[in-house]
Amino acid sequence: MKKYKLTIRGNNYEVDILSIEDDKAEVEVNGSRYEVDIHQTVKKSTKTPILIRTQTTPTGDADTKRTSKPSAPKGAGLIKAPLPGTILEMKCKVGDVVKNGGLILIMEAMKMENNIKTNIDGTITKIFVNAGDSVLEGDSLVEVGGE
């Protein structure tokens, strides 16, 4: 099967593995045959690590994941972060009336300032973030209620 040249305490050995069955191996060392017991298989470590990804599950209430509910008044919904970043400045407060395209906050992402604007008309009903907060893509920033 396999041949090895080993040096143990300065002595050279030529080892031939003749057969392996279950936990017994027949080997030949410098012309002499031996039957040896195998206690454990040594696995070779790989140089390249194996990436194992875990499954993620959505957290929170299912209704907060939607941009708007079908039963909500026209224009109601959440403004979400388009990409990961840090909130630099809030341009609105609860109770402000906003129009489609109105600036609601400034966010730094990828070393650039991004103006986050509303895509619906309505009134700011809830603010989920403050200046200095870090957000991930898809995090809710502001909730806008219908007019």
Description of the molecule:
The protein is mainly beta. It has 2 domains: 2-37, no CATH class; 67-145, RNA polymerase II/Efflux pump adaptor protein, barrel-sandwich hybrid domain (OB fold (Dihydrolipoamide Acetyltransferase, E2P)). It has one helix at residues 62-65; strands spanning 2-8, 11-21, 24-29, 32-37, 77-80, 85-90, 97-98, 103-109, 112-117, 122-127, 134-135, 140-145. The strands form 3 sheets. It has a 4-stranded antiparallel β-sheet, with no helix packed on it. Strands 5-12-10-7 form a 4-stranded antiparallel β-sheet, with no helix packed on it. The longest helix is centred in the middle third of the chain and has 4 residues, at 62-65. The chain starts with a strand and ends with a strand. 12% of the residues are buried. Residues 63-68 have low confidence and may be disordered.
